[in-house]
Protein: Lipocalin-like domain-containing protein
Organism: Dawidia cretensis
Amino acid sequence: MQKSYLRLFAVLLLFSIMTFTTSCSDNDDDHNDANKTDLLVGKQWYPTRYEEEDEGKVIDVTTSWLRDCQKDDYLFFEEKGIFMSSSGNIQCGDNSGADLDGEGTWSWKNDNKVLSMVWPIVTIDQEVLSLSATELQVRYEITNGPNPADKGFLVTTYNTRN
């Protein structure tokens, strides 16, 4: 009788250990990283809000950064590490650089906390502040004015449309 209790205890203990070790795996971050990629790719991301962070102040600069002709511009990320930018159907047409159609490569950096986008002439590393099925918010350093030491941050919010 006592042996059967010991066997039962051993089986339950073994089952508990197996359950605990499989539910607390080391690859939870890999799963979350895959989810980030799944959330990012295959969608058109439209810029909807711009905010400047400078010396602890946050200023909404959407009206000065997002012109009417840019409201249909979007980024599209592919799973294989390529992104495309489109200036949409409404063209600014004023040689301001606002009409940017092209492609580059993208990747995750720093444990998938940074979205790195490589254009033919520039690389932009953006801290991902939030990412959901419908909203992406990134933050990156900018230079304010002609003095390279005068730096701040730009927070850009993108949304998908149905």
User: Anything to note?
Assistant: The two ends are 66 Å apart (CA to CA).
